[in-house]
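Late entry, evening session. Most of the bench is empty. Finally got around to the prediction I had been postponing all week. Sequence below, unchanged from the version circulated by S.P.
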Amino acid sequence: MKYAICKECNLEMKPDNGCKCSTIICNGTKFERIKAGDNEDFIPDMEENEYCHDCNVGIGQYHHFGCDAERCPSCGEQLIGCDCEIEYKSI
C-alpha cells in the first residue's frame, strides 16, 4: 500500500508514523503542536489502536502537515483553514 508523504517531516503517513515536527510558529509566537487524542485535539476521544481519519497518526503523536483534524494552538480553529500565519519548525 502506498501512503502520502508529509511535506514537513518526509515520513509516510502510515499508521503510527507520527509527524516529527513538534512546534510551529503562529503569528510570530512559538507553540508546541497539539497531539492526536489530546483534550484540545479535534479528536479528543481517540482510543488505543485508533488512528486519525486523515493522516493515520495514533494517540500522542503529532498530526502530519495538512491534516484536517489538527487544531491551531493559537486560535483554536482548524489549522489548515485558519487565518494565522503559520511556520512549521521541522524536527
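Two things to note before I forget:
Residues 42 and 60 are 13 Å apart (CA to CA).
The chain is about 0% helix and 15% strand.
Will write this up properly tomorrow.
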